[in-house]
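Let us work through a complete example step by step.
Step 1: write down the sequence.
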Amino acid sequence: MDTWLLVGLGNPGPSYAGNRHNVGAMVVDELARRGGASLSRHKTRSQVAEFRLGILPGGMPGPKVVVAAPQSYMNESGGPVSALLQYYSLTPDHLVVVHDELDIPFDDVRLKKGGGEGGHNGLRSITKSIGTRDYLRVRVGVGRPPGRMDPADHVLRDFSASERKVLPFVVDTAADAAESVVLDGLLAAQQRFHS
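Step 2: predict the structure and record it as tokens.
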């Protein structure tokens, strides 16, 4: 049975919890909740939960998924992700990274495999640590910063009051998209979530 690693990027600690940069970690929390599991400390410097995803046709339990939130800072995400892949004996084609994306409008979710990091330090660290860009990504739009604000300041700010009203739906959609990538494959998931 296939095992998948779903990693949600963010920064550890309560002061970052509501930041735009932490939306990946929010999605992993939602996935764990849906799986009836709770994240707990793991020797890979991550919070980890394991469960089976869904029910396959014929009533068989779905694939095993490991959801993880690295407990390193964003720009050091690669170490924990590499350690998780090694610990679970997985290859990068079974890695799904959920992360914030400046180049996508807030509340949009996009899926892709590989490609550049677009200035995202978490992705850059992962690519460097695992030696490839060819992993799946669930890109959660946080929009461009207003005016001349530095993008780094934008992603380290909490979602605005109006965004927070919509945020639960965005997290829900991103969690659906991550599940769909695993269960249906990238192409089918893209057709569903990009339409």
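Step 3: interpret the result. The chain has a mean pLDDT of 96.
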